[in-house]
Design goal:
Helix content: 25-40%
Structural class: alpha+beta
CATH class of the largest domain: Mainly Beta
Number of helices: 5
Low-confidence stretches: none
CATH architecture of the largest domain: Sandwich
Radius of gyration: 51 Å
Shape: rod-shaped
Distance between the termini: 111 Å
Mean pLDDT: 78
Number of domains: 2
Strand content: 15-25%
Number of strands: 11
CATH topology of the largest domain: Immunoglobulin-like
Amino acid sequence: MQLIQNIVEWFRSLSNGLKVVVIVVSIIVALLASRAVYVIAALVFAIGLVVLIIRAIRRRPLRQWGIVTVSALVLAIVFGNISGASNEGATPTQRESATSSETAEKAKQEESEPAPPAPAPEEKAEAEPEPAKSEEKEQPEEEPTAEIGQSVEVDEAAWVVTGARQASQLNDQFGGITPPKQGNFVIVDFRFKNNSNEAKTLHSGALKLIDEDGRESDPDTDTFSYIPPEENIFLEQVNPGVTKDAEAIFSVAPDASGFNLRLRGTSLFSLEEPKEVALGF
């Protein structure tokens, strides 16, 4: 800091003519080393700001350091612009010279290298037509539907549909306590075996009757009194390894036909795909 103050005092002691000479020489030197002057001026400006803040806190005079800081800011702006302009002006020239030298080298290489021989015409082989893929391979094969009497395994249980028939009237199984029930019904007899290691509860949601129009029917809960008591096993536990004969009755539309019995797992959260059994009517 003392050095800068000594320089300022020395400059003030010069005559006007010497001041002009010093200023002109300084400008010429600055132009030749504009980048360095910009860095020095920026550094002096930063130092001046710090000193001004310290002196202001201590309530010291700010005039001299104010002049130094402002002058450093002006020099940083002026010589920063000069440095940037000189760099921008030099860049296109360097690029043009590099481009011209590369072009000349490529031209020399092209003249010295012999021209490559023309490629011989290739004979195009006639493409043999690919055999058309059969539609049967493209379409996934559907799992065949089981028939009456065949065993179907779903979720560690074996189902066998032993018989199926249509009826228009249901008779009470308790000696006429309930009057006959009229309607259109499909009665399915089946055998259920628990192949798991724990008891299973057979619920009505494990069975659905599907007709050829895709309509789904659940077992009719109003017909449970028309099922023989020993074959009404819904909501009863079937222990592991035990086989039970059962019956389910479905109410259907008068024009329904083409029935399949869809069988699901007894667990409400079973992810196994259901199986279907064709009833034959």
